[in-house]
Amino acid sequence: MVEKYIKQTIHNEIDEKLDRIGISLSSGIDSTLVLALLRKQLPSIEIESVSIKFSDSTDETDASQKISSKFNTNHHILEIDNFLEELPHAISVVKQPFWDLHWYYLVKKMKNFTNVFVSGDGGDELFGGYTFRYKKFLELTNENSTTEQKIISYLNCHERDWVPDQELIFGDECKFNWEEIYQILRPYFNNSLSNLTQVFLADFNGKLINNMKPLYSSIHKHFNIKNITPILNNETIRLSCHLPNLSKYDYSTNTGKIPLISLIEKFSVKHLISSKKQGFSVNTINMWNSYARTIFLHYFDKSRLIEDKILNSEWIQKYSTKSNLDARYVNKLLGILALEIWYRLFITKDLDSNEKLTI
After folding, report:
1. CA distance 55 to 211
2. Above pLDDT 70, what percent of the chain?
3. CA nearest 150: which of 135, 161, 131, 137?
4. pLDDT tens-digit series, residues 23-73
5. What is the DSSP string of 139-164?
6. Which residues, in sequence order, are bridge partners of residue 228?
7. Is the pLDDT of residue 276 over 80?
8. Residues 6+ positions from 194 with CB-CB distance below 8 Å
9. What is the SS3 assignment for 92?
């Protein structure tokens, strides 16, 4: 049924008169499956595939190149040396303080080839792709765990999104309260669903509905490019909600996306797909040590957030000048940099969105 629904979406949303379409191609299951079905449905159409290569990060482009060759696409590798360079403009587009806006660069590149952009979004959220999270959550909880215990366990499965002394980040004008975070998550864990289903629900809403979709929609609108997500059709979403968890995720082998893997095997490309989930991901520690720290210190020499007592200067000073930071603190500092850029763009309005973050 999954294959049927994806094919229907491709048929319904892609005009057969088009001579060219684009697709974001990592070395993962989702984009490879969508490409395989795209080529099967539209054997003669020109397909422009784009992969991203980040400096000092895991390089998946060799694998994506092989997948491209398998399905006869015109493959392009977007090399990004300074991931933060166009952050002010990207934030001005999405109007939210996010630093990881690789999708901005991807869509900008795709605009050179076509106005129709296909992606494999939704596979992880619908069919259990975040296996590292499920395994840890199930080890931290049991059937007798309270709502609060499950919320805390879920947050402990998102360690890269917060730091142990998070409440010390903020200044007098912005009091941080964990209860406000719990309140957002409570509906996903205060119900009669199984523990694993609750995680699926939280991921679907937190990662997809309230993060990826609005951010990506803003980027697509800015570049006037049509985005098609064949996995994220109403029928597939409905189907994924009714599939037993065991049909999506096998705890004994820590394997997710079982229905999609079964489909991939039909196209004889499973050996080309990365064994570990990566997608388009930058090595944040290498980026911080290479150039991000220098950029951060430049903008926090006279931080507007510190001047307005929103952030605690002592915390910023302590970690931004510290050597050998772990990934959690690097990610937090990158998020704070994005917040500073957003604040200068939309609140103090003393930053030009076209300013480049260079060293």
Report:
1. 25
2. 97
3. 137
4. 999 888 999 999 999 999 999 999 999 999 887 766 677 888 999 999 999
5. HH--TT--HHHHHHHHHHT-GGG--T
6. 118
7. no
8. 245
9. helix
Kind and range of the H or E element at 55? none
Q: What is the mean pLDDT of the chain?
A: 93
Closest to 227 in 3D by CA, of 239, 238, 218? 218
d(CA 308, CA 3): 53
The pLDDT score that the predictor gives to residue 54 is 86
Residue 252 has what DSSP assignment? Answer: T
Q: Which amino acid is at 269?
A: V
Judged by DSSP in three states, 311 sits in strand
The 10 Å Cβ neighbour count of residue 273 is 20
Q: What CA–CA distances, in Å, run from 263 to 36, 66, 84, 157?
A: 10, 19, 37, 29
Q: Nearest CA to 276 among 132, 137, 155? A: 132
pTM of the predicted model as reported, rounded to 2 decimal places: 0.94
Buried b (16+ CB within 10 A) or exposed e, 326-344: eebbbbbbbbbbbbbbbbb
Torsions phi, psi of 7, nearest 5? Answer: -60, -40
CA angle in degrees (0–180, nearest 5) for 142-143-146: 85
Residues in the chain: 359
| Between residues 151 and 270, the one the model is more confident about | 151
**Do residues 168 and 312 make contact, with C-beta atoms less than 8 angstroms apart?**
yes
Rounded CA separation 132/267 (Å): 26
| Tokens (6 digits) for 148 | 């609060």
- What are the residues whose beta carbons fall under 8 Å from the beta carbon of 314, sequence distance 6 or more? none
Task: Please give the backbone phi and psi of residue 158, each rounded to the nearest 5 degrees, phi first.
Answer: -120, 45
